[in-house]
Amino acid sequence: MNPLCGRCNLVVYPTEKVNCLDKYWHKGCFSCEVCKMTLSMKNYKGFEKRPYCNAHYPKTSFTCVPDTPENLRLKHQSEMQSQVRYKEDFEKNRGKGFSVVTDTPEMQRIKKTQEQISNIKYHEEFEKRKMGGDVPRQQPSNPSPAAFQPPAASQNFHYEPAPEPVQPVRQAAAAPPPSAGRYRAVYDYAAADEDEVSFVDGDVIVDVQQIDEGWMYGRVERTGQQGMLPANYVEAI
Fold first, then answer.
1. pTM above the 0.85 mark?
2. Rounded distance, CA 119 to CA 89, Å?
3. What is the pLDDT along the chain (237 residues), one digit of tens a residue?
4. Which helix (H) or strand (E) holds 173?
5. What one-character-per-residue DSSP string does 65-128 give?
6. What whole-number distance in Å separates Cα of residue 54 and Cα of residue 110?
7. N or C: which end of the chain has fewer CB within 10 A?
8. Please, is 25 exposed, middle or buried when counting C-beta atoms within 10 Å of its C-beta (0-12, 13-18, 19+)?
9. Strands (E), 37-118
10. Which string of b and e fits 203-226 if b means at least 16 CB within 10 Å?
11. Pairing of strands 50-52, 181-185
12. What is the Cα–Cα distance from 108 to 116, expressed in whole angstroms?
C-alpha cells in the first residue's frame, strides 16, 4: 500500500516519492513551510519534522527568567549548600600536612625535575665542603688583616680556631646527638649516592640534623640506616 503525503495527505507513488523527516512527500509538496519554495534533500532544514529553507529556518532564543521570590529562595539555598559542603571538606582536610594529588604523567615529570634539581644542589654543596668551601665562610668573623700584623702571639690566637668550622662537617658524617628532632616521611625516596639513605612514605626519621636549606642528616627508625635525606620529603612530628 502506498503511503500518504505529509502535506496534502494524498497517495504518494514511488516515481514521485521523497522520504524525509520520517514522512513521505510529493516532490512538489516538499517545500518550505513559510515561503513554499520547493526544496531538495541538499538544501532543506528540518524543524519539528517540518521542512524549511535556510532563510526561514526558526531560530531559538533564550528567555530571561525574572527574580521571583521562589527563584531567589532557590538561589540562596544553593549558596548555603555550597558553603556547608566547603566547610565539611575544610574540616576533613584540617591537620593534614599534604593533599592527595593524582599521579598524572605531568605530576611525575614535575616530581622528577624537582628531584634532579635537589640532587644537583646537594652535590654542589657537598663538593664545596669536600674542597674546604666552609672555611672561607668563617673569615668575616675574624679580625681584619691589620690584627694579624703586630705580634706573633696575636696571629696564633686567631689561627687556633681555624679548624673549628670544619668540625660540623665531620660530625655530620657521624651519628647526630640524641636530642635531635623527629620527622615523618611524606614521600618515597631512593638514595642516589652512597652517603644518602632510602625510606618510604610513613617512615619515622630520628636524630635529625639540619645540614642546609635543602638537606638533613638522620636515621630511619625502621631500618636503622642513617645518612643524608632531602628536607622537602619529610615533615616534623
1. no
2. 36
3. 788 998 898 998 888 889 888 899 898 899 999 998 888 888 898 888 889 998 888 887 766 777 788 888 888 888 888 888 888 888 877 766 555 666 788 888 888 888 888 888 888 888 888 776 544 444 444 544 444 454 444 444 444 544 444 333 333 444 444 445 789 999 999 988 888 999 999 999 999 998 888 899 999 999 999 999 999 999 988
4. helix 167-173
5. PP--HHHHHHHHHHHHHHHHHHHHHHHHHTT-SS------HHHHHHHHHHHHHHHHHHHHHHHH
6. 53
7. N
8. buried
9. 45-47, 50-52
10. bbbebbbebeeebbbbbbeeeeeb
11. unpaired
12. 12
107 Rama sector, left if φ>0, alpha if ψ -120 to 50, beta otherwise: alpha
5/51 Cα distance (integer angstroms): 13
* DSSP 8-state symbol, 229: E
Select from 173, 216, 192 the least CA-distant residue to 119.
192
